[in-house]
Design goal:
This protein has a single domain, classed as Hypothetical protein apc22750. Chain B (Translation Initiation Factor IF3). It is built from two helices and four strands, in the order E-E-H-H-E-E. The protein has a four-stranded mixed sheet with strand order 1-3-4-2. It starts with 9 loop residues before the first strand and ends with a strand.
Amino acid sequence: MNISEAPSIRIATTDGITGTRVATTLNIVIGIAIRSRGVGGNIMAGLDALGNGRALDEYRDDLAAIRRDALARMAAEAEKLGANAVVGVRFDTAEVGREMVEVVAYGTAVVLQDT
């Protein structure tokens, strides 16, 4: 899944969205994305330690893509619950072993009403 496939619901890191009120709080929603860095990613990370800025840029871009995937998965879960928004969104990122990166996006699925 990628962000272009994500449901069209509002997402905010804040506890609410200006101009709306939370009519119903549904549940916590979570989106998890895991990707293998592979041998190339490990070599590039090693080169960064030697001062290759391009490798860092590629790793950053890969992480951004994984975050978008996790966000899309979280939004899809919220939509299944009937939410039109997810508030209080946070991300956790971790390396799983030496080969994989995991990103978890989580927040509270809500139904918002315009005020």
